[in-house]
Each structure stands twice: as structure tokens, then as C-alpha cells.
Design goal:
Blueprint: E1 4-10, H1 15-23, H2 28-35, E2 38-43, H3 50-59, H4 63-66, E3 72-74, E4 81-83, H5 94-100, E5 105-110, E6 121-125, E7 137-138, H6 142-150, H7 164-189, E8 193-198, H8 200-212, H9 222-231, H10 234-252, E9 257-262, E10 266-269, E11 272-275, H11 276-282, H12 292-302, H13 307-317, H14 321-332, H15 335-345, E12 359-360, E13 368-371, H16 386-401, E14 412-417, H17 418-421, E15 433-437, E16 442-445, E17 456-457, E18 464-467, E19 469-475, E20 482-483, E21 487-488, H18 492-499, E22 504-505, H19 519-524, E23 529-530, H20 548-560
Parallel strand pairs: 1-8, 1-9, 2-20, 2-21, 5-6, 5-8, 11-16, 22-23
Antiparallel strand pairs: 2-19, 3-4, 6-7, 9-19, 10-18, 11-17, 12-13, 13-15, 14-15
Helix pairs in contact: 7-10, 8-9, 8-10
Length: 564
């Protein structure tokens, strides 16, 4: 049994690029860990989005059991969405399980941990926190303690929708802060289990992948070539800064500490966003009202008056207009008021004739389509049974025939029914039809209902996106160094519990990654399972977790990041 276990999360880190930077000497501290580690691919959930993936890490369960699929959730009985949070997630997280056994824990910056819950230790919530003014710390006195001891802690750093340089500077401001706070908490409170996640790796990859990777379709365009000298090393520089910030802490750890470095998913080039609602309207699945106002808005839409174009125009001016407008909205408008303004200015759900609309898409990066089903949707027009099944089959076939006009390649590689993909009590939260795309390089987008006039196009904010294959590297007592066969993110929770000597709840979907452990350790520490469920004594997964103002903060930030 290991005495203490530290997990360092590098959100979205891809193993092949980590290994490359280690070989190039850019990550000396991580390289020393990996030289004596069991290292391999860690497969994420589908779709590989941080809230769903980190929830599966925490619970050892797949999304159908814990109920988190995306940054957002569909509000039952509506065509609207709300952001997810810790209260959306069902099941007990490993920090809850360890706390219940009397172990001391620490949790820092893990997605889906707001509001922070009472644990036997401490918690600083992650990206689902509404703002730095929110109560993101447990115990509540921890914020003041960190201010006095290490200069304070912020969940978010400075960011900009318009200026990549300002965003990058903000990332380099928060990296040493997280490492400094993490080491202080580790040494002051001596948790048996602790996790610290860096989200900066994910954000920089979304913004700068095309400057680094020759496989990106825009790598050799004139615009990218002109900017490459400034941004070619932006991604590895973020990793290098994390490596150097963690170095003194890692060097101070004794041999009885197990260290796990992992990512919730990987990353790669983003070719295009797929505007699913435009595609559905183009194929006759979405119909619009015939009112004079809707006809005017449709004409404006066809002429290019869309949220995407408005943002691009503001950003091109380079005067901070988009940033100032975003900040003003956050300060002065509730989500309802802001939604009303968007609906008045642009083509939106208010213009849809739901009595004839048979399918629609919601959310940000979830590659899925919902059927407008009678009895489930407020104005459902599709009957369950044969009509529903025929419609799903028809849409799936058309998706598989969808081709990129620039390459002629089929975009959608496979389709499946949502309930078949996500087994569990929350499978009904999944879209009716889900699909995978060519090289995972096309991403379905239903964010603002009609964000662009295109069926598909490169994103104005993203040029890198997620991949299913992430990474894991384990080192310390009981670990057998070497290359691992791929494991799954749901395997991490049972592996951590086993390393720390705790039994594994029987309803976890994951397994102990025993091939990463030495025979001697396994002989003296046999795997124990308990029939107490990880899903019992936990949140129900039905709570909202936000006030109206907090919800708007989270929605606005997801828009800033390009997820909506």
C-alpha cells in the first residue's frame, strides 16, 4: 500500500506530443518521472469533453451512470440548456469514498466540483465555478489562508476573446500560482490523496494547434505562416512552464509517494465545426415560422447577420469591442435578458415552428441530435415507435452521406442511438443520435441555435480540439515501469483506491490497472471489492447548483472559451 498518492492532471494532454517534448528535453521533471513510470494511452469517454471525462475519472463510472455528458444539460420539458455542475453528477467521487473511510483528501481545480463539498480535507472547485468571487473553497476559511500564506488563489486567470497574446499571458500567470498553492496544501495538510488539474494545457491547444502541427489543414496557409514565429512554441511553452513550476515540488517527494500524471482526453487538429441546426434545416427537419419578423430575420441571416460574423467583425477591429461587450453583458444582464436580446437580434429558437420541426441540436461540442418527440418535448410532433425509429434511421443515413465539399471525404464515420451508447439510469439525457467523425477532426456544434450561415466551416476561435486518446503515467511504490496497453479513464478511480488500500465499489465500470503494478505488490495487496455502491449515498444528479446570476457567468465563460 502506498502512503500518499498525488494526481497531476494535464487537461487534454496527448501522449505522443508529451513523449516528443520529453525526448527534446523540454519537460525534464516529467521526463524523470516517466523514465521510471508505467506509461500508456488513457482512453476517454465519448464525446471526450472535460466535464464528462473528469466525472468518469472521479466516479469510475461511464456517463450513463453519473449523468454528465457535456458542459451543458438539456432542461427537461424545454428546448433550453443549463450548465452542468457537481450537483448534476450522480455517484460518489473517490474523494468522497476516501473521506468516508477516514482518509484525508485534497482536490484542486477539477471540473464538476462546484459547489465545493465538505470532505475530510480541502477542495478548491474547478472550471464550473461561476467566478473568482464565488465561494469556491472548502473549508470557507481556506481562501483567506491562501491569501496570507502564498498570495492567494484564483480559479480563472485573465482571458480575452480577441487577443491571443493576452490569453497566453493569463495562462502563464496562473500556472505558477496553481503549483505554489498545490505544494502548500500538500505540505500543510498532508492529504493521503490529492489531485491538482491544470486546464491551461487544454485552452492553449484549442487556440494554437495549427501553428504547431503540420497535420493541421491550415498549417501552411499564408496567415498561419505569418504568425507561426510568434506562436509555434506556444503549446510546448505552456507545458514547459508547468514542468518547471512543478519541479521543486516533485523533487521534494519521497519514494513512498505514488505520482500519477494523466489527461482526461487527448488533442489534435480541428478541421471544421458542423453547424447541426443549419444542416437539419437544410435537410427539411427544422421548419421556421411564417411571421413577418421571422421572415426578416431569415433574410438577415442569409445576408450574414449571425453571432459568429458579429464577433469576427468586432475582433478584426482590434479595439477590445468583443471583450467589453462580453464583460458588460456579464455585469448587467441575467441569462434570460441576454437570451431575449440574442433572440431579438438573430435567428433563434423563437423563430422555429416546433409543430413541424422533427429534430434539433443543443449545446456546444456534443455530436448529437435530438428528435422532437411527442410526450417528451413541449411541442413534440414525432410519435414514438415506428415513426421515431424511421426518422432516426433516416437522419443517421444522411449523416453518413454528408461530405466535406473541400475534400469530398465522408465526415461522419459511424452513427449510433444515444441510449445504446450510454447504458445506465441517465441514458435518457443523451441525444437520440450520436456520431463519430473522420479523424475526430470535425465537431458537431449546436451552441447558439443558428450561429453561422454555413453548414460547416473552420471555427473563429478553435483550431485544435479533443481526441479520445489521452495519457497516463504512474510512478512510485508498487508500480512496474514500462509501456502499458491502453486503459480507460474509468479505470483510474479503482486503481487509486487499490493503491491506497481501499475496497472498490462493485458498480464502478472501471477495473484496477493491474498490469501497471508489480507482482510483489499484487501478491501482498490483493484486489478487494465491496458491494456498497459508488452510486449510493451520493448526489442524485438532478440538482442545478447555480443561481440565475451564477448560471449566466458560467454560460458566458463557456462562450468565451468557444464551447457554446
Amino acid at each position: 500500500m502506498t502512503d500518499r498518492l498525488l494526481v497531476l492532471g494535464l487537461d487534454s494532454a496527448p501522449l505522443q506530443w508529451i513523449q516528443r517534448w520529453v525526448d527534446e528535453g523540454r519537460l525534464p521533471h516529467l521526463g524523470r518521472l516517466m523514465s521510471r513510470s508505467a506509461t500508456g494511452v488513457l482512453e476517454s469517454v465519448f464525446p471526450p469533453l472535460s466535464p464528462a471525462a473528469w466525472s468518469s475519472f472521479a466516479t469510475g463510472m461511464l456517463p450513463g451512470k453519473h449523468g454528465v455528458f457535456d458542459h451543458i444539460r438539456r432542461l427537461p420539458g424545454t428546448y433550453d440548456i443549463a450548465p452542468t455542475s457537481a450537483r448534476t453528477r450522480a455517484g460518489r467521487a473517490i474523494w468522497e469514498i476516501i473521506s468516508a473511510h477516514g482518509g484525508r483528501v485534497g482536490v484542486v481545480n477539477v471540473p464538476e466540483t462546484y459547489p465545493p463539498m465538505p470532505v475530510n480535507g480541502f477542495m478548491l472547485s474547478g472550471m464550473d465555478t461561476p467566478s473568482d468571487d464565488a465561494e469556491f473553497a472548502y473549508p470557507g476559511s481556506l481562501k483567506a489562508e491562501l491569501e496570507a500564506a502564498v498570495g492567494g488563489y484564483k480559479v480563472f486567470g485573465p482571458r480575452s476573446k480577441e487577443s491571443l497574446d493576452r490569453s497566453i499571458a493569463g495562462m502563464h500567470e496562473t500556472i505558477p500560482m496553481r503549483a505554489r498553492v498545490g505544494r502548500y496544501l500538500w505540505e500543510t495538510y498532508a492529504p493521503e490523496f490529492m489531485i491538482l488539474v491544470f486546464m491551461e494545457t487544454d485552452v492553449i491547444q484549442h487556440k494554437c494547434w495549427k501553428y504547431m502541427d503540420p497535420a493541421h489543414p491550415d498549417y501552411d496557409t499564408p496567415q498561419t505562416r505569418a504568425l507561426r514565429p510568434a506562436y509555434a512554441d506556444a503549446i510546448p511553452d505552456v507545458y514547459s512552464h508547468i514542468d518547471s513550476a512543478l519541479g521543486p515540488w516533485l523533487d521534494s517527494l519521497d519514494e513512498d509517494t505514488t505520482v500519477i500524471v494523466l489527461s482526461d482526453h487527448g488533442a489534435g487538429p480541428l478541421r471544421k465545426f458542423l453547424y447541426l441546426n443549419n444542416w437539419l434545416a437544410h435537410n427539411g427537419y427544422i421548419y421556421f415560422r411564417g411571421s413577418p419578423l421571422t421572415r426578416l430575420k431569415r433574410l438577415s441571416f442569409q445576408l450574414g447577420l449571425t453571432p459568429t460574423r458579429a464577433f469576427e467583425m468586432a475582433a478584426r477591429l482590434g479595439m477590445g469591442l468583443a471583450d467589453r461587450a462580453t464583460n458588460r453583458i456579464k455585469r448587467q444582464m441575467t441569462r434570460t435578458a441576454r437570451t431575449t436580446l440574442m433572440q431579438r437580434a438573430f435567428l433563434s429558437w423563437t423563430d422555429v415552428d416546433w409543430s413541424r420541426t422533427r429534430a434539433y441540436a443543443l449545446g456546444g461540442n456534443f455530436t448529437g441530435i435530438y428528435v422532437n418527440l411527442k410526450g417528451r418535448e413541449p411541442q413534440g410532433c414525432v410519435s414514438s415507435g415506428e415513426e421515431y425509429e424511421a426518422l432516426c434511421s433516416e437522419i443517421a443515413a444522411r449523416l453518413r452521406d454528408w461530405r466535406d465539399p473541400d475534400t469530398g471525404e465522408a465526415i461522419v464515420q459511424a452513427t449510433q442511438r444515444g441510449e445504446a451508447s450510454y447504458q445506465g439510469p441517465f441514458s435518457d439525457r443523451a441525444p437520440d443520435i450520436v456520431f463519430t467523425t473522420l479523424d475526430e477532426a470535425y465537431v458537431g456544434f449546436g451552441g447558439h441555435e443558428f450561429a453561422s450561415t454555413a453548414l460547416m466551416e473552420p471555427s473563429p476561435m478553435f483550431n485544435g480540439h479533443h481526441r479520445v486518446e489521452g495519457m497516463i503515467s504512474l510512478s512510485g511504490r508498487g508500480v512496474r515501469p514500462g509501456r502499458l496497453e491502453p486503459s480507460r479513464i474509468v479505470d483510474v478511480a479503482p486503481t487509486i483506491l487499490h493503491l491506497l488500500g481501499y475496497p472498490i465499489p462493485s458498480d464502478m465500470d472501471g477495473r484496477v490497472v493491474s498490469e501497471a503494478l508489480s507482482e510483489a505488490f499484487l501478491d501482498t495487496h490483493p484486489i478487494r471489492q465491496e458491494f456498497k455502491m459508488a452510486s449510493l449515498g451520493a448526489t442524485t444528479g438532478s440538482g442545478a447548483g447555480y443561481t440565475t446570476t451564477e448560471e449566466q457567468e458560467v454560460i458566458s465563460r463557456l462562450e468565451d472559451l468557444g464551447y457554446l
